[in-house]
Each structure stands twice: as structure tokens, then as C-alpha cells.
């Protein structure tokens, strides 16, 4: 019964009235995230653009692109989560350096997550939500080993009790990615260049889905705190 009630609550977000308000909050959070993130971490995206451009124009090496994507995307994701999550602290370099201990645990998770995703072809799936929710719980903890392990458990619970939300979001994201890939394929004939443009496109719009999921996470933790303890 608790599970069905949680699923019903998860679906309630997509009612027109609720969804409109939620998206307005998400869009504001996204704008704020872009401002904070580009102020302190925009160099990550700029560096990836430079690597992809040099690689596409000169080296033509898939390995170089994958390496840049494999290092740049996790770091971009981690700093985005820190930029978008609510905090009583001013979001400056001092704020970000408080989470170096959390970055250590995240790095291990990211390696395991990307290795698993590589094995199944980098699919955006329930595993992706498990990873995102776990990271958000980790950032809300003291960053200890015990807390990091418990964050994984809480992330699993968050996915389990919100499967409808996760599935709908996955479908929408995949539709968007399909449209983006279709447009890029029309414009660029070079397959390597196409892959790089799609990678950069995903990285550029990442603040929007991260803000969307983080706002959902914040709402659920606030409204159903006991459920995820």
C-alpha cells in the first residue's frame, strides 16, 4: 500500500497544474545554475569544446573524444549538482571546496557507473536515476564512508518509490536525444563530428534535467522525509 501511494504521489507531479508550477521553479533553478556554474566551472565545458574541436579538425581520434567525455562529463555533473542543490551557503569557491571528501566517493561511483553504462551502451535508465539520487543524498551527508554507503541505499529507495516519475522522464529524455541526433545528422556528414556535437549538446543542456531531477528530489525529501530515512 505504501508503495502504491508513493507511485501515485510520483505521478501527481505530471498533473497540468502541478507540472506548470514545478517547471517554473525548475526553469528558475536552471537559470541560477547556469549563472553559478559558468562563473566557477565554465572552463570545464570550454576545455571539452577545445578538445573536441582540435580532435575533430586534426587528430580524428575517437579515443581522445571518449577520454575528454569520460573525464569532463562526471566533473561537470558533480559541480552541477553542487550548483543546483539548495544551500544556506554562498555558492563560491569556498562552498565547492567543502565537498572534496564527497568528490572522492563520487569518483569511485562514477567509474563504476560509467563502466556499467559502457557495457550496456550508455543508456539513460533507472540506473542513471539511482546514480543521480545517490549523489544528491551523498551531498546532503557528512561525506563519511558510512554516509556514502547509506546514500546508495537511500538512492535505491528513491528510485523504487518513484518509478513512474523515472520512467516518464526517461522516455521524454530519449525522445529529445533522438530529435537532437536526427538534426545533427542532417547538418553534419562526418560521424565522428556528429558524435562530438551530440556530446557537447548533452553537456550544454545538462543543467535543465539536473535541475528538474534535483527539484523533484528536494520536494520528495521534504514531503516524505521518513520514507527515505
Number of helices: 10
* Number of structural domains: 1
What is the ordering of alpha helices and beta strands? HHHHHHHHHH
Strand content: under 5%
Report low-confidence residues grouped into runs of 5 or more: none
End-to-end Cα distance: 18 Å
Overall geometry comes to globular
What is the count of β-strands? 0
Sheet with most strands: none
Mean pLDDT across the residues is: 83
- The Rg value, from CA coordinates, equals 18 Å
Q: What structural class do you assign from the helix and strand content?
A: mainly alpha
How helix-rich are the residues, as a percent range?
over 70%
Helix-strand blueprint:
Layout: H1 2-12, H2 16-59, H3 62-84, H4 93-97, H5 100-119, H6 126-139, H7 145-160, H8 163-187, H9 191-205, H10 207-223
Task: Characterise the protein shown here.
- The chain has 229 residues and is an all-alpha fold.
- It has one domain.
- 83% of the residues lie in helices and 0% in strands.
- It is built from ten helices and no strands.
- The longest helix has 44 residues.
- It is globular.
- The mean pLDDT is 83.
